[in-house]
Amino acid sequence: MITDGLDKIGFSLNVFIEEVSLTDDVLEELIALSNDWEAEKSCYGYRANRREDIEGNRIFLARDRGRTVGYLFGKCFQSQNMRSVMPEGSSCFEVEELYVIPSRRSTGIGKALFGFASDAVRQEAEYITLSTAVKNWKAIFHFYLDELDMTFWSARLFKRITSSPAPSSGLSVSSARPR
Questions:
Q1: Model's pTM, two decimal places?
Q2: In this structure, are residues 71 and 30 in contact, taking their beta carbons and an 8 Å threshold?
Q3: Residue 28's domain spans which residues?
Q4: What one-character DSSP code corresponds to residue 103?
Q5: Residue at 24 is within a domain
Q6: How many domains is the chain partitioned into structurally?
Q7: What are 52-89's pLDDT values in tens digits?
Q8: Are 58 and 97 in contact (CB under 8 A)?
Q9: CA 8 – CA 10 distance, rounded (Å)
């Protein structure tokens, strides 16, 4: 049962976390939850999972009274081209997805899933890695950096520079283009 920190927000959950095998029932649950996640439009480019996205991953479910309220899945690999943060060939567990249903976010379920998965893969992996494309980057950075004590490694940013003119600052700027 998850209780860590929940007393501060006034309730507790009867959440049970376990690693499961990929059965047809588990697949159906994960696909339904990922359809919900896609509908939220909370991540850039996220699309709902298909069987091939999930197969081959270790799967961890958070359930409350039999209902799946969150999941984490990922797989182990040997690091390549990550020398700036770890020795080449280090064993890693890549979190492919960590999802908690909206009504249960900020209750400790995501942290508990991450902790459970960390403990489960500790004999196989030296590091846990992940990437995120969430639109609410402030909340996700708080979660991963402050709550889970992960280390920031890199960021890929974007800015649209066509279709709409930039607001005028009142300054006149000229530039010369090389010929």
A1: 0.79
A2: yes
A3: 6-147
A4: G
A5: yes
A6: 1
A7: 999 999 999 999 999 999 999 999 998 888 877 888 88
A8: no
A9: 6
